[in-house]
Write a structure and sequence with these properties.
There is one protein chain. A 4-stranded antiparallel sheet has the order 1-2-3-4. Helix content is about 30%, strand content about 35%. The protein has 3 helices and 4 strands. It has one domain (about 5-95): Gcn5-related N-acetyltransferase (GNAT) (Aminopeptidase, 3-Layer(aba) Sandwich). The mean pLDDT is about 80. The protein starts with 5 loop residues before the first strand and ends with a helix.
């Protein structure tokens, strides 16, 4: 990605950056959420569940936030986890 660029990516289990992206997101989980709310220990297992997925936002190749979801049907999805890195909030609000 070029300097100052943003990219929204859906994480696929067979993608080449799976391990790196999951490791970075687990680190964010540990920083952002208290232990009793964190999925850091079971993050990979949560993503293995049927009809679950993850979208993450990268800013200058650094993960700025993510959303985990489940889709009970093809018509809707339910957000199960939403998190962002604080230093990117102002920039994301500006773009929105």
């Amino acid at each position: 990605m070029a300097d100052g660029s943003m990219e929204l990516t859906e994480l696929h289990r067979k993608s080449t950056n799976w391990a790196k992206a999951v490791d970075e997101i687990v680190k964010l989980e540990k920083k952002i959420f208290p232990k009793h709310e964190s999925l850091a220990r079971s993050f990979d297992d949560e993503l293995k569940k049927k009809n679950s997925g993850l979208l993450y936002l990268q800013f200058n190749s650094e993960i700025a936030g993510y959303v985990m979801y489940t889709s009970p049907s093809s018509l809707c999805a339910v957000i199960t986890k939403l998190a962002g890195v604080y230093r990117f909030y102002i920039f994301i609000e500006f773009l929105g």
